[in-house]
Amino acid sequence: MDVLAPSKAAFYSALVPGLGQVYNKKYWKVPIVYAGLGVGIYFYADNNKKYNRFRDEYKKRLNGTSDPNDPYFGRLDNSRLIDGQKFYRRNRDLSAFITAAIYILNVVDANVDAHLMQFNVNENLTVRPDIYQNEINYKQNVGLTLNYNF
């Protein structure tokens, strides 16, 4: 196994999201990465658009150029416009943070997965659950069995 595989996978995933998962041959993770990033970017853009609409309407009110018969903003007072700006700005910033976290998790996942591919998994070292019957009261006991063979 290539010892540079974890750093390559992380680099590829940082360069193009999902490419590290393809490098690790975990193709099923790529749609999850792109769905997470796509949803985050969608909500960022949507909240940013709504924030700008509330901000622009508030600026129009301060300049005296707003339309009082506007079907959406006409019934809102200035404090509601400010509250709307705060709400959509907070959601926009949260969407950006979540999108960045998904991107970072994509890189970390590719790196960790490449590390775990180098891990030796064979029958010489096993940990498995064990259910056995207590010989005194005949109740079922649950435990773990650790086997290590040289």
Cα-to-Cα separation, first versus last residue: 23 Å
Shape: elongated
Q: Strands of the largest sheet, in order across it?
A: 1-2
**Quick one: how many beta strands?**
2
Q: Please state the CA-atom Rg, rounded to the nearest Å.
A: 27 Å
- The SSE string, one letter per element, is HHHHEE
- Beta percentage is 5-15%
Task: Quickly give the structural class.
Answer: alpha+beta
Keywords: Membrane, Transmembrane, Transmembrane helix
InterPro entries: DUF5683
Pfam family, one: DUF5683
Domain DUF5683: 4-150
Please explain how this structure is put together.
This is DUF5683 domain-containing protein. Keywords: Membrane, Transmembrane, Transmembrane helix. By secondary structure, the chain is of the alpha+beta class. The protein has one domain. It has four helices and two strands, in the order H-H-H-H-E-E. Strands 1-2 form a two-stranded antiparallel sheet. Helix 1 packs antiparallel against helix 4 and helix 3 packs antiparallel against helix 4. The longest helix is centred in the middle third of the chain and has 40 residues. The model has no long low-confidence stretch (mean pLDDT 89).
Provide a concise account of the structure shown.
The chain has 150 residues and is α+β, with helices and mostly antiparallel strands. It contains four helices and two strands.
